[in-house]
Design a protein that fits this description.
6 helices, alpha+beta, Beta-lactamase Inhibitory Protein, Chain:B, domain 1, globular
Length: about 230
């Protein structure tokens, strides 16, 4: 019997590096919104471009500015939910820009010859200051998406005891029924691996900036983390 061909290590598979790039975007995405500095140097592997949008007082619906950016109030939660993720059948880059206009920030990352792009819009409908809408692309198809800064009013503050009561295996609907809508969502779909996160940061009992994040796999809680809750 001929010897079996050894399996390729997971860290040499393309999807591993694509997930790594998405994690880089998740960590650094917020930094790009607060920086107006321009760099004279750029590389093909890591390039960030800030795109300034122009405002107009012209209310004419045929004005070029409104045609370029029809969503003047920014994307909504419904817009976020409508975006399909997938390396082969995800919503395309061109479809996104035709609906929301040019993004405020664009980024590209290349690791181990795997390239992905991210686009960020700084304004969302009904959002708080600092909220944004971001989409990650691979080969022009959406593979990740996120929305943050959603305004939510709760009946009572969420405590650390409430957080500790959350168990792996609970459904997303169980969580929302108990705590209300989250202030942010993020999702990733790569190589048939789907993950989702819900972020809660309003009406949280604790120090300034207290929040918690829940991770879901196949619609069930698979992880949780909290910061400064009491």
């Amino acid at each position: 019997m001929p010897p079996q061909k050894p399996k390729k290590p997971f860290y040499k598979k393309w999807w591993f590096w694509l997930i790594a790039i998405i994690l880089v975007f998740s960590i650094g995405g917020g930094l790009g919104n607060n920086s107006n500095k321009k760099s004279d140097k750029s590389t093909e592997s890591n390039k960030t471009e800030s795109v300034k949008t122009r405002s107009t007082n012209n209310s004419n619906s045929n004005s070029p500015e409104k045609e370029k950016n029809p969503k003047t109030n920014g994307p909504s939660l419904e817009d976020y939910k409508a975006i399909k993720l997938g390396e082969n059948d995800g919503t395309t880059d061109s479809e996104i820009e035709s609906k929301f206009g040019k993004p405020n920030t664009t980024s590209s990352q290349t690791i181990e010859n795997v390239k992905a792009d991210e686009k960020i819009w700084n304004k969302i409908q009904g959002g708080s200051l600092g909220g944004n809408f971001n989409i990650g692309f691979s080969n022009g198809k959406a593979i990740s998406k996120g929305i943050s800064g959603l305004r939510v009013t709760r009946n009572k503050k969420i405590s650390l005891d409430d957080f500790n009561s959350i168990q792996n295996g609970q459904s997303e609907s169980d969580i929302i029924n108990k705590f209300g809508q989250p202030n942010g969502y993020s999702e990733t779909s790569i190589a048939n691996h789907n993950s989702k996160q819900l972020t809660y940061n309003s009406d949280i009992k604790g120090d300034l900036g207290a929040n918690f994040i829940l991770t879901f796999t196949d619609g069930k809680v698979s992880g949780k983390t909290q910061t400064s809750m009491k």
